[in-house]
Amino acid sequence: MVNDLAARAKQEFYPGQVVSCQQTGADFLFLCDNGVQLRLQVITDKVLRFRFATDNGFAPDFSYAFPEGVPARQEPEFLEFREKPDHYRITTDRLICTIAKANLASRVLDRSGSVLSEDEKGFHWEYDYDTGNDIVKMSKLVQSGAHYYGLGDKPENMNLRGKQFTNWGTDTYGYVKGSDPLYKNIPFFLALHQKIAHGIFFDNTFKASFDFAAERADVASFWAQGGEMNYYFIYGPSLMEVTEEYTRLTCPPELPPLWALGYHQCKWSYFPESLFKGIAKGFRDRQIPCDALYLDIDYMDGYRCFTWNPTHFPDPKRMVRELAEDGFKTIVIIDPGIKIDPNYSVYREGLQNDYFCRRADGPLMKGSVWPGLCNFPDYTRPEVREWWAGLFKGLIQEDGVKGVWNDMNEPAVFEKGTFPDDVRFSYDGHQASHKKAHNIYGMQMARATAAGVKQFSYPNRPFTITRSTYSGGQRYSSGWTGDNVASWEHLWLANIQCQRLSISGFSFIGSDIGGFIDTPDGELYVRWVALGAFHPFFRTHSSGDHGDQEPWSFGEQYAELAKSFIELRYRLLPYMYTTFWQYTQQGTPMLRPLAFLDQTDTDTYLRMAEFALGDHLLVCPITTPGADGRWMYLPKGQWFYYWTDEAKAGGAEVWASAPLDRIPLFIKAGAVVPMYPVMQYVGEKVVEEVTLHVYYKNGTETSVLYDDGGEGYGYQNGQSTTRRFKVKGTETGLVLQQETEGDYQTSFTTYHVVLHGLPFAAAAFSLDGADVAGSETTTETGLTLPSVVVNAGFTELIIG
C-alpha cells in the first residue's frame, strides 16, 4: 500500500457549500459545510473587510496596523442584505458585494454595476506540516486593462503589472532595480481599470507574496505563509481616494516640527566632536541652510546604545547645546541590538526584567551586530516598549538631542540575515514566533522610540526616522529608502520609491541623497539634491568609506548649485508644511504620480518620472548625466514653467530646459504658492511677510495655506490658521480672495503678492474696496513681475 499522506498534506483546500449566514449589524458571518467561515465586515460605505477561518476558527482580532488593534468603523449610511437563489448580496451606499453560496467566491461592484473585483479561485489554503500554519491564498481575475500600484518601497517600475513581490523585511545593502524584498513591509496595493480605482490591504504579517499577473496573465493573487486570509477592499473611485481611505484606516501621523522638513546632513560617521562641529561651521560659513546634523553608530561607547564615546564626545550636553545655539538639531542613531556586557546598565536592566527575546526552548536570542554579540528587546510587549521609551530621557531631556534614527530593525543580524524562526514574541498577548513578528519588529521598535522621544521632547514635537516598518508605521516615524548607491540608476529609483511609499500611506519619506555606497560626482550630487528638495524627508547620507559628501565636497561650482536648491526648499517650507497638514488630516499622499492627477488620461498610467508635490507643483528630475533638459508629460490643464513663466498646455509631452541649475518644475495655473524668506535654519528669523506667488488662470482655482507656528501642540487645541485662496481670472482681470479659519496669530502681518502670467497689464489694484499702489519685483529666478504688498487679513484683491 502506497502511503500518500505526504502528498495529501500538500494539496490545496477550498471552502465548501454555504449552509448559513448570520447578520449582526454591519457584520456578516458565512458558515460552510466543511467548517470554513467568512466574516465580512462593512467598515465604511467604501471599505469591506474579508476575514476567513479554516478548521481552527478565528483567532482574537488584533493587528498592529491600527492604533487600537482593530480598525475604526463608521456606521454605513445605507446597508441592505438579501439572499438570492445562488448568492447573498450586501449593498452599501457605494458598493455591491455578492457571495456565492457554492464556494464563498466574492464579487465587488460599484453601484452602477461595474465589476471592480472578482475572485478566480478565491480563498484557498494549504497546510504547512513544518510549521502547523495554513498557507493562505487568494486569487482574483485581472480586470480588463488593469494596472497596479503601491506596495511600499519596491525598487521597480511604478506600474506593478507583470511582476511578483515578497514582503519580508530585509537588510538589502546596495540593492538594485528589481531587488526584492527590501526593508519595509506594506501589504497594500491599488488597482486601476476602466478608469475606476480600488485597493487591497492584505493585513497579514507573515512572509507574504503578491503576483500581479506575472505567473498567469489573467490572474492576480496574494498569499502568506501563515496567519489568516484577512484583507480589506477599499473603493475609490479615484486613486487618490483609495490612498486616503487606506491611510485614514491605518491612521496618519501627527504633524512634525517644521524644522524636520528642513535640510539634514548625515554620514557614517561624524566624529570626533571637532569634526562634527566643523561640519556645522561649514554650513554656516557658506550660508547653506541646514537644520539637522546626524551622529551614526560611532558616537556611542563601543556601539552601546544610549551611551556616548568619552573620547570622541567628552561633553555631549555642552556640544549639543552649542550646536543648538547655532540652529542645529542633533539626531542620533539607535539600533535594536543591546550588547551583552554585564557592566552595561541597559543590558543589565533588560536581563533582570526579562525584556529580551527568547528562543523556543528558553535561551535568549543572541545575534551579532555592530557591538558584537547582542540580545534584542521584545518590542511587542507593552512593558518593554515603556522601558525602551524611558531610556531616552538621558539623550533627549538631559543631553538635548532632538531626534532619533532607528536602523538595523528589520531586524538585521550579521551573517544570518535575521532572527531564527523559533524566536518567540509576546505580540501584545497573542503569542507568536518570528515568522509572524518579523515584519512588524521594526515598526514596534519605532513605536517605542517615538513614545520616548515624544515624552522627553515635550512641549516640543518629536522627530524619529526608521528603516523598517509595516502598514500603519507612518504613525510613529519618518523613513528613508535604505542603503542605496551613488549611481544614476539609484537617483531614478529614489524618485520611484518615494512616490510609491507616499501612495502606500507613508509620505514622510526620502532617500540618501548622493547615495550611501560609493561616491557621486558633482553633477549627480546636484541632480539628487534638486530631487530631494521636493521630497518630504530631505537628507544627504553617505558611508564614510567612500569620501566626503557635504554640499561643498565637490567644489565651489557644485556647492553653489546645491545651495540654490536647498534655499528653494526653505522658501517652499510653508507649501511643504501645508501639504503635510493635508496628509495628516485626510491621508492625502504628499507625492503623487501622474496617474493620481488624472486617471481619466490613459497616457498617465505607465509614466513614472513626473510627480506632483501637493496640489500645485509638478516635478520631473533629470536622471541621466550630461542632460540639459528632458521631455516630460504635463497633465491636462494649463501650467507655467517655474524658471521662465513660460505657459504650457497639458495633455502633451513638453520639453523642459534644465541645465544643472534647474530641475523641471511646473506650477499649475491658478495656484497660489506661499514662500518664506530664505533662512539658515527654521526659527533663525521671525517671518514677518509671506510671498504669495499667484499664477494666472482663465477660470477658477483654489489653494490653501496652513500655519500653527510649526512647533508644540497648540494646534490640537485650535491654535492654527487655515487660509483658503481662490483665484478667478478673465482675459482682462484677476481676483484673489482669501477666507481664514482659526484665530492663531501668525508671525507675518503682510503678503507680498507676485503675479505670474497675466495676459493684461496690471494697471490697477483694489484691496477690499480701496485702491492700493502696485509695483514691480524681481523674483529669485530673475523675472521682473507686477506685485503688491497687502495686509495678511485681506478678503479680496482685484487686479485689472
TrEMBL record:
**Matches recorded under Pfam families:** DUF5110, Gal_mutarotas_2, Glyco_hydro_31_2nd, Glyco_hydro_31_3rd
Q: Which residues form the Glycosyl hydrolase family 31 C-terminal domain?
A: 587-673
- What keywords are assigned to this protein? Glycosidase, Hydrolase
Residue intervals of the Glycoside hydrolase family 31 TIM barrel domain: 253-578
Q: Indicate the segments forming the DUF5110 domain, all copies.
A: 689-757
The GO molecular function terms of this record are: carbohydrate binding; hydrolase activity, hydrolyzing O-glycosyl compounds
Glycoside hydrolase family 31 N-terminal domain segment(s): 38-211
- For the keyword Transcription, the answer is no
| Swiss-Prot/TrEMBL GO biological process terms | carbohydrate metabolic process
Q: Which superkingdom does the taxonomy of this entry point to?
A: Bacteria
Please state which protein family the record places this protein in. Belongs to the glycosyl hydrolase 31 family.
Protein name listed in UniProt: DUF4968 domain-containing protein
Give the originating organism. Hymenobacter fodinae
